[in-house]
TrEMBL record:
This is Oligosaccharide repeat unit polymerase. It comes from the Archaea. The chain crosses the membrane at residues 21-44, 50-70, 82-101, 107-124, 136-155, 189-216, 228-247, 320-339, 351-376. Keywords: Membrane, Transmembrane, Transmembrane helix. InterPro entries: O_anti_polymase.
Length: 391
């Protein structure tokens, strides 16, 4: 009875409103639900008023984010007449140029890097439907990982200093991205990639890999919602074990078990969000719209400079206050475009990244990544999907 009611409810919302498990609205809702659920043991630390304020900020931004999914905004805003290929390319180019120039101070580096990224994207788009693309991406991912290990002389998850050092290492970013893409349609690649990303020591990369794989197969009708739920439980537990292993290598003494660590991390995320809401001054782009700005959250909110996770809408609220609702509307428009126009593989990765950002919080790197997904979506033509059960 309960199972049948769940299936009827799931199908009703999917058919009437398009709210399947793959919808960005549902993904963000699930992400926040997990954070609040895991933090339940610490709810007493907040008080009713603080909890209501956090729920109001999250729910308000999510509602505004959702608006474009329920109206035909393309025609209302005449986006169908706008050359989105060119527009997304211009936005992506400006964002990359500004990011590199801000970090390096070199005009030449900014131009060369932006040009190189566009070249790589066009090579990727041109060969996207090649039968060899998954093998090539898998090889790139494995070689990048091995090169990183040889460079640092150790497996990152066993050495906290090395793990922190590779946070912005291009080899790690290339490896995680390439392995995630290659693993979508090859279970053998998925298992190898899972092992590699686990020992790399970044929980977000493992989460993106698993969720992208699940979304891809869900959108292709190869896996049921029930199996996704069961694998989701395993994923949460595994991420807790990873968190415990990472802390063990850091030299810090924690008496919490892996489940308690997950609960505490969720509480810390919400505590940071609470402090952001109570912070009296908007920072007008210093956090989410500035390269490396996320490190300021720790300094401003907790008194020490560190990359602090503050949930998806936290950084935007710290930057813009109530005006974050305007950003959420634009965020929703872009996410709908990616959701509707992307090839299944591309969107599956975007959806997985979106879920991971529910804890991390929007930052400049994510904004560039989102524009990159939009640019690829606008320049890539869909290919018919062949359904085949994998489970």
């Amino acid at each position: 009875m309960l199972k049948n009611n769940f299936e009827k409810s799931k199908n009703y919302f999917k058919e009437k409103y398009g709210l399947g498990l793959d919808n960005p609205i549902v993904i963000i809702f699930i992400g926040y639900f997990l954070i609040f659920f895991l933090a339940i043991p610490y709810f007493g630390e907040f008080g009713v008023n603080s909890l209501l304020k956090m729920i109001l900020v999250v729910f308000g931004n999510l509602v505004i984010f959702s608006i474009p999914f329920f109206i035909n905004f393309e025609k209302k805003m005449k986006l169908d007449k706008l050359n989105l290929k060119m527009f997304s390319g211009i936005l992506l180019g400006i964002s990359m140029f500004f990011g590199v120039f801000t970090l390096s101070g070199s005009l030449l580096s900014a131009v060369l890097f932006s040009g190189l990224v566009f070249l790589i994207l066009h090579i990727f788009i041109k060969n996207y439907y090649s039968e060899k693309i998954s093998k090539i991406m898998f090889l790139i991912g494995v070689v990048s990982f091995l090169a990183m290990v040889l460079n640092y002389g150790t497996i990152p998850i066993t050495n906290y200093t090395v793990r922190m050092a590779i946070s912005d290492d291009p080899l790690r970013l290339i490896s995680s991205g390439a392995l995630t893409f290659a693993s979508l349609f090859n279970f053998g690649y998925f298992l190898v990639s899972f092992a590699i990303l686990a020992v790399t020591g970044y929980k977000a990369n493992v989460l993106v890999l698993i969720v992208a794989f699940l979304l891809y197969n869900y959108k292709n009708n190869k896996i049921s919602a029930k199996k996704i739920f069961l694998i989701g439980i395993f994923t949460v537990l595994f991420l807790g074990i990873m968190a415990k292993a990472i802390l063990s290598s850091s030299g810090q003494s924690w008496s919490l078990n892996f489940l308690e660590i997950l609960s505490y991390r969720a509480y810390f995320d919400l505590m940071t969000l609470e402090k952001i809401i109570l912070y009296s001054t908007a920072l007008y782009g210093k956090i989410a719209f500035t390269p490396g700005g996320e490190s300021l959250i720790g300094e401003i909110i907790h008194g020490y400079r560190h990359n602090i996770t503050s949930t998806l809408f936290g950084p935007i609220y710290l930057d813009l206050g109530y005006y974050s609702l305007i950003f959420s509307l634009i965020f929703g428009i872009i996410s709908k475009l990616i959701y509707k126009k992307s090839d299944t593989k591309i969107y599956s990765i975007y959806g997985a990244v979106l879920l991971s950002m529910c804890e991390i919080g929007i930052n400049y790197g994510f904004l560039v990544t989102m524009l990159m997904f939009l640019y690829v979506s606008e320049n890539l033509h869909k290919k018919p999907i062949i359904n085949k059960k994998i489970f």
